[in-house]
Amino acid sequence: MRPELLGLIYELLPETHSRPELQHFYSLLRDYPARGGKGLRSELLLLSARAHGVAEQSSQWQSALWLGAAIELFQNWVLIHDDIADDSEERRGQPALHRLHGLPLALNAGDALHAYMWAAVERAGVPGAMGEFLEMIHRTAEGQHLDLTWVASGEWQLSETDYLEMVRLKTAYYTVIVPLRLGALAAGTVPSPLFTPAGEALGAAFQIRDDVLNLLADAGGYGKEIGGDLLEGKRTLITLHWLSGAPPEQQRLFLHEMARPRGEKDPQMIARILDWLRESGSIDYAQRFADEQGADGLTELRRALMNVAQPETAAQILQLAEGYVTRRA
Fold it and tell me: What is the CATH number of the domain that holds 231?
């Protein structure tokens, strides 16, 4: 994340209070933002603003920075809630907030950051920005509901189409589509309708890469626990593809293990399942699928950016988007 965005976030968030309990609350609000993060979404938004003609140091640029701060606040409150919903252990290389301070305090901190997100949107003063944030929240919540419902109900009879619908809602809107659109709005420009199909494909590729990294990445650079998706019983393209052709006994053992609560899962069985997935070819299949989605998304994005005011910055957007779909960390 750009340092100036963290500065704007800190400008919004309260810092000190004479009452110790509220001083603790303020520290919770700053915890996830202070942990950093790549800032991919805010960077995409700012590049989109520049590509559409916003000059740095202008009042429009300041508005774009506030929108970038708002999307970072969105990311942080959603991650707090997501970690609670998934009962995750880690976030950005440290214990998840609810692991450090308990579920009620973490949930309340996430709620408060949600409110500060809207304060940042208001500071931006960009017409149409509130509608974009509402769209982003609605679609992300729908995707999260699908994801959580499948886990809660034990549903594994799912197709690739089901998975893609979920990730296009849960990931694509806040990772690609809305940042691109917000950048255009900051420039006073009508966003290209091609941002949606481009973002849906790129968002799917981004999420599939994340699913792969969760099984293969080096723990030191990933920032989340390796194999956490298996412990949480996440439905991924990898597991769905593997289940469709796995030996019956492996299927039985897998489904039995996935039906157990996270805290009761057998580490040795999880390790065996991870070996089955790695040996099956399903991870390679997911990588190829991500490559195809990424190529489709980049093609649509090139078309969307064909006539923007700053072609040089459009090339940077394409480079960043390509990094989304080829990332290894």
Answer: 1.10.600.10
